[in-house]
Automatic annotation (TrEMBL):
CDD domains reported for this sequence: ABC_Carb_Monos_I, ABC_Carb_Monos_II
Name listed for the protein in its UniProt record: Ribose transport system ATP-binding protein
Stretches assigned to the ABC transporter domain: 23-259, 277-500
Keyword field: ATP-binding, Nucleotide-binding, Repeat, Transport
Pfam family, one: ABC_tran
Composition bias, Basic and acidic residues: 505-515
InterPro entries for this protein: AAA+_ATPase, ABC_carbohydrate_import_ATPase, ABC_transporter-like_ATP-bd, ABC_transporter-like_CS, P-loop_NTPase
Taxonomic placement: Bacteria, Bacillati, Actinomycetota, Actinomycetes, Streptosporangiales
Region of interest (Disordered), ranges: 1-21, 490-531
Species assigned in the record: Nonomuraea muscovyensis
SUPFAM superfamilies in UniProt: P-loop containing nucleoside triphosphate hydrolases
Length: 531
């Protein structure tokens, strides 16, 4: 019997807009050994709201999400779903709460349809499941990411990083009822168009009453997508505000990052000596063709930071690949190189090793004497980089115990800890917080000033402002070379959309090239330098 004047039980009270709570966390704590990941968090997420959760790398965001999705138990405190106490691991209690992970949770050697079946089999028929899973996957992919280029028969390991991320998000949405969707850094590997269509889908979900919890280091995106912003700092909530009225720098201040917004700093941060036209050429591509390239010429001088920009999949990664393995006659590289992959899950971290060994693996050979490792010297190198990039967790932690952003810092540090003269960056700052990114931009400029050369592909056009020169790519060609003050986000976007000349017959794309694919072969060897 419903009695109007009785107060609603805790965890079920509607707010002024009449929105019911979906999940309520009270006093949630969690520690991993001596690391306190959550220090008593109270948070309520309501149906129909988009809640943005921000905080520096290692602040505890993913840990909190795992509690709200029932994937891990808290040491102390409670989690209620629709007002009912929900024990971690209870599939029934968390049935309508779904999460799309930062590191995708897909099985790489299964197809897209098979992955959908694994996570959504409770709402798919047993007989004819493959056809049903394929149809649902296709329909939802079309709805959320038009032009995705994925078929349900594709094996996940053959998909690009962006496509895997799309499948991960759609996998989370494939349920008969969705009350809370948690998106952990969903756009870090998506292009701008896919990000836009995702956010319009998020808005539609919220209008239909679903709660969406969005974790992101892209503060501008959070402010435009979310109704409310919660700041997590060292495992505790330090601010909970409506998004309207907040500014990017205001949020950064709440996060405790005493830095300017990166795009504001770019103009002053970039362009040191830039190698100068007289500096030695350390790497060169001369009219490089094949494998997705259609006549690319590019020179890198000592001490230069050269950017590769343009829409994703236009040949930038093929250029990095050529410079990494200069096996063709059209490519010449005269110095040792180190590679920083953006896809740390596939080719970045060595999961069974600790932070220190992951960090020093590239430099190990240079530090060794007569084939023997010099552990004290390795430790000094590790200590230096762990401190410099503030890797939360320390040198002895297992690498997989680190938060995603901290793992990425280790992968970046690995390249710079070596003596490689040419560092190749393949969109490497995914999941890294704003404060650390600013440190990394400074690091790049400092290393260039010491004479190192850097070739940097980034899907964030604003980052290109830290380069001396930028080649903008389209359809395997350089369509513009910008330098100095010409480098701006607007200019890069403008030339990215310029109509390219018609390719001649000799330029026909490599037959294995797929749209949106890097075409890059195995990158597992990138823990080493080539020289
Ligand atoms: N399984 C684990 N074992 C040990 N420590 C862990 C584990 N998971 C998380 N931690 C630690 O808990 C802290 C919070 O990590 P969490 O992944 O929640 O951070 P985050 O805010 O999501 O960071 P990021 O923005 O880098 O993804 C970190 O110090 C991390 O090293």
């Amino acid at each position: 019997m419903h009695v109007d004047n009785l107060p609603a039980p805790p965890g079920t009270e509607r707010d002024q807009a009449g929105r019911p709570p979906v999940v309520t966390a009270s006093g949630v704590t969690k520690a991993y050994g001596r690391t306190r990941a959550l220090a008593g968090v109270d948070l309520q997420v309501r149906g129909g709201e988009v809640l943005g959760l921000v905080g520096h790398n290692g602040a505890g965001k993913s840990t909190l999400m795992r509690m709200l999705a029932g994937l891990e138990s808290c040491d102390d405190g409670t989690v209620l779903v629709h007002g009912e106490e929900a024990p971690a691991g209870s599939a029934a209690a968390f049935r309508t709460v779904r999460m799309a992970y930062q590191e995708t949770s897909l099985c790489p050697d299964l197809t897209v349809a098979e992955n959908m079946w694994i996570s959504s089999r409770h709402c798919l028929p047993r007989l004819g499941w493959r056809r049903a899973a394929s149809a649902s996957a296709r329909r939802r992919l079309d709805e959320v990411f038009p032009g995705h280029g994925v078929t349900p028969r594709d094996r996940v390991e053959d998909l690009s990083l962006a496509q895997r991320q799309m499948v991960e998000i759609v996998r989370a949405c494939l349920v008969d009822r969705l009350d809370l969707l948690i998106l952990d850094e969903p756009t870090e590997s998506l292009g701008p168009d896919a990000a836009r269509t995702l956010y319009s889908y998020v808005r539609r979900l919220a209008e239909a009453g679903t709660a969406v919890l969005l974790i992101s280091h892209r503060i501008r995106e959070v402010l435009s997508a979310a109704d409310r912003v919660v700041v997590l700092r060292d495992g505790a909530i330090t601010a909970d505000r409506p998004a309207a009225g907040l500014t990017e720098s205001g949020v950064l201040t709440l996060m405790g990052a005493h830095v300017a917004v990166p795009s504001e700093r770019a103009g002053t941060a970039r362009r040191g000596t830039g190698g100068g036209t007289g500096a030695r050429v350390v790497a060169e591509l001369r009219d490089a063709r094949g494998g997705g390239l259609h006549g690319v010429s590019l020179r890198v001088r000592a001490g230069e930071v050269v950017g590769l920009a343009g829409l994703a999949g236009q040949g930038q990664q093929e250029v990095l690949e050529r410079l990494w393995r200069p096996t063709r006659r059209d490519t010449e590289v005269s110095v040792a190189r180190a590679y920083v992959p953006g896809d740390r899950q596939r080719s970045g971290v060595l999961p069974l090793w600790n932070v220190g060994d992951n960090l020093v693996v590239t430099a190990m050979r240079e530090i060794a004497r007569r084939g023997l490792r010099r552990i004290p010297d390795e430790r000094d190198v590790v200590r230096h980089w762990v401190e410099r990039l503030a890797v939360k967790g320390g040198a002895d932690a297992g690498i997989t115990e680190l938060s995603g952003g901290n793992q990425q810092k280790v992968v970046v540090a690995r390249a710079f800890a070596s003596t490689a003269g040419l560092v190749l960056l393949d969109d490497p700052f995914r999941g890294v917080d704003v404060h650390t990114k600013t440190e990394l931009y400074r690091l790049i400029r400092e290393e260039a000033a010491k004479g190192r050369s850097i070739v940097w592909y980034s899907s964030e056009n604003a980052e290109m402002a830290h380069c001396d020169r930028v080649h903008v790519f389209r359809a395997g060609r350089t369509v513009a070379e910008l330098s100095g003050e010409e480098i701006s986000e607007e200019q890069i976007i403008a030339v990215s959309f310029d109509e390219p000349d018609q390719p001649d017959e000799s330029d026909k794309p490599h037959e294995r090239d797929e749209p949106g694919e890097s075409g890059a072969p195995d990158r597992a060897a990138r823990g080493r330098t080539h020289g």
